[in-house]
Specification:
Four Helix Bundle (Hemerythrin (Met), subunit A); disordered N terminus
């Protein structure tokens, strides 16, 4: 019975800490209070707090950093689980999933985009294409920045569909997509500038068929480029 009671207490403290993270009290990237402070907040012993924190480390919500403390790295365990799954998924499978989602989202975006979407798409396209041109520096940092701009543009297209479920699911894919995109080198044959521009132009013009076709052709080009 003592073991059951102790485990129940750990579960309660774990739930309290999880709720604090979910509520935004400790934001992503923020260091949580020290163990003594958490003991005072929860009214429990240090061993209980330590095990509760470790449980959330295993769940992917917290990360211990030697000599620095414990930081929030996730706010939802299901999102973390999905992100971990997508991070190890086969590249072909990810591209096929992107096609299923992005092609339809592009058509919806062309039908539903508003003025704010149009302005955001134009601005992001300009930045994205500039970062991917052959004159850009092709090092790890530059590829990371270019990958971020590329992923941001695709997310904006999905956001312009004004389908909340599509966007929520796409956000789960984003970390894996950014990693996959960052593996490509900047320059000729890798930019796909023309087809990205064609996609955005079709969405802005309200041409759903052209937007779907451009999204499909773009992902086909990426697949062939490897």
């Amino acid at each position: 019975m003592q073991t059951v009671k102790r485990q129940s207490l750990i579960a309660q403290v774990t739930g309290q800490l999880r709720a604090e993270i979910a509520s935004g009290r400790w934001a992503l990237g923020e260091r949580i209070p020290t163990e003594p402070a958490l003991c005072e907040m929860t009214g429990t012993a240090r061993n209980t707090v330590r095990e509760a924190v470790q449980s959330l480390v295993h769940a992917g919500l917290l990360e211990r950093r030697q000599g620095s403390g414990t930081y929030v790295v996730g706010t939802d365990e299901q999102e973390v689980a999905f992100s971990d799954f997508f991070a190890t998924a086969n590249r072909r499978d990810l591209l096929e999933l992107r096609e299923a989602l992005e092609v339809n989202a592009a058509g919806l975006a062309a039908a539903r985009r508003d003025d704010a979407d149009v302005a955001a798409l134009r601005e992001c396209l300009t930045r994205r294409n500039r970062l991917w041109r052959p004159t850009s520096v092709d090092d790890a940092d530059s590829r990371e920045e270019a990958a971020g701009a590329d992923a941001d543009l695709h997310r904006l297209v999905v956001a312009a569909s004004h389908n909340a479920v599509y966007l929520e699911f796409y956000d789960l894919l984003l970390p894996a997509l950014r990693t996959m995109i960052a593996q490509r080198h900047i320059g000729v044959g890798r930019s796909h500038e023309a087809i990205h521009t064609e996609l955005v132009d079709a969405v802005i013009a309200g041409d759903a068929a052209a937007a779907r076709a451009a999204a499909r052709d773009l992902l086909a080009d990426v697949h062939e480029a490897g």
